[in-house]
Design goal:
It is a single chain. This protein has helices spanning 69-77, 104-114, 116-128, 141-163, 182-204, 221-228, 231-243, 250-264, 267-279, and strands at residues 25-28, 32-36, 39-44, 47-51, 58-61, 66-67, 81-85, 92-96. By secondary structure, the protein is α/β, with parallel strands linked by helices. The protein folds into 2 domains: 7-96, Ribosomal Protein L15, Chain: K, domain 2; 104-279, Four Helix Bundle (Hemerythrin (Met), subunit A). The strands form 2 sheets. A 4-stranded mixed beta sheet has the order 1-5-7-8, sandwiched between helices. Strands 4-3-2-6 form a 4-stranded mixed beta sheet. Strand 7 and strand 8 form a beta hairpin. The radius of gyration is 21 Å and the shape is flat. The chain starts with 24 loop residues before the first strand and ends in a 29-residue tail after the last helix.
Length: 308
């Protein structure tokens, strides 16, 4: 079991790592999960621990994990979301959302997305986050995109010169992968990793991967939005470094390098914090077992009671 330097025999699982909003999470590898009474036990070659399912919000299952049907049911009953991810969380393959999870943050995202003024405000904020020095006031969205294009172009040129890797343009075809240049292969492998981590962060914090602000029209539009906040800083240095290094297994080396780099940056926690900052997600969730409210045009009314 890994994630925050877990040692099986000594780890105090009551002190789970948290995102900024208090969401508790745990990342496991090479572990078998089975139900034990009302709890869940995790069996690993180094030992066994009982997971505090009732206080666990998100469980990320990495390579080598297996989980029984009853363990999944026990975790779901407590509101824990299960995410099946690649090594170090660098890819997301599937997810299961605990049935008692609150929709508060998703509703907030939908409100911001549906209102043109708030939608534009989030778009501007997402672009501004990419410029440490900020952007000039009064720019149109088209002008902001121009600044972003120049930032990306300059970053590619800078890393190309630093690593001695020729850079012409971002170009590859999935149907003709082998003809792509090494740097384009490295970038594609790196982008897949950061998309997976962004997807995991979005689901873990209760937002929708489909309701994008900058990107639109795809089921992963918001994943692309979030990943673009960090690509230049996170993916480019590893991709150019590995493309400049002789040897085989370029894509594997990129994935391994990014796994370590993103872990050192605590990027999952950073993404969660930035998501709440962007979408105003610091809400107090209702009691997990309480019934949901009933919609009313004058404001939601209490559910679970007879209104006769």
């Amino acid at each position: 079991m890994t994630g925050q330097g877990v040692v099986w025999e000594r780890q105090n699982l009551r002190a789970l790592p948290k995102f900024r909003d208090g969401t508790t999470y745990l990342y496991l590898e090479h572990t078998r999960l089975e139900q034990d009474g009302r709890g869940v036990r995790a069996y690993h070659p180094d030992g066994m621990v009982t997971l505090p399912a009732a206080s666990l919000s998100v469980l990320l299952l990495g390579p080598g994990c297996s989980v029984s049907h009853e363990a999944v049911k026990a975790l779901s009953d407590t509101g824990c979301s299960l995410l099946w991810v690649g090594e170090g969380g660098v890819r997301l393959y599937a997810s299961g959302i605990g049935e008692t999870r609150s929709a508060t943050r998703l509703q907030q995202q939908a409100r911001l997305w549906a209102d043109p003024d708030s939608h534009l405000r989030v778009v501007r904020q997402m672009y501004t986050m990419r410029f440490p020095q900020g952007l000039p006031d009064g720019l149109t969205l088209a002008q902001i995109r121009g600044h972003e294009g120049a930032r990306v172009r300059d970053a590619y040129a800078r890393y190309s010169q630093a690593h001695g890797v020729k850079w012409e343009q971002r170009q590859y075809k999935q149907s003709d992968w082998n003809r792509a240049t090494p740097i384009n292969k490295a970038l594609s492998a790196g982008n897949a990793c950061i998309y997976g981590l962004a997807h995991a962060a979005i689901l873990a914090t209760g937002y929708s991967p489909a309701l994008g602000f900058v990107h639109t029209g795809k089921m992963l539009s918001f994943v692309y939005d979030v990943a673009d906040l960090y690509k230049i800083e996170v993916v480019l240095p590893i991709a150019f470094r590995e493309a400049a290094t002789p040897g085989d297994d370029l894509e594997r080396r990129v994935r391994t390098g990014l796994r370590d780099h993103m872990t050192n940056l605590r990027l999952l926690e950073r993404m969660a914090s930035d998501l709440h900052h962007l979408l105003g997600g610091d809400h107090t969730d209702p009691e997990p077992t309480a019934p949901g409210d009933l919609w009313d045009p004058r404001g939601d009314v209490q559910g679970g009671i007879n209104h006769a």
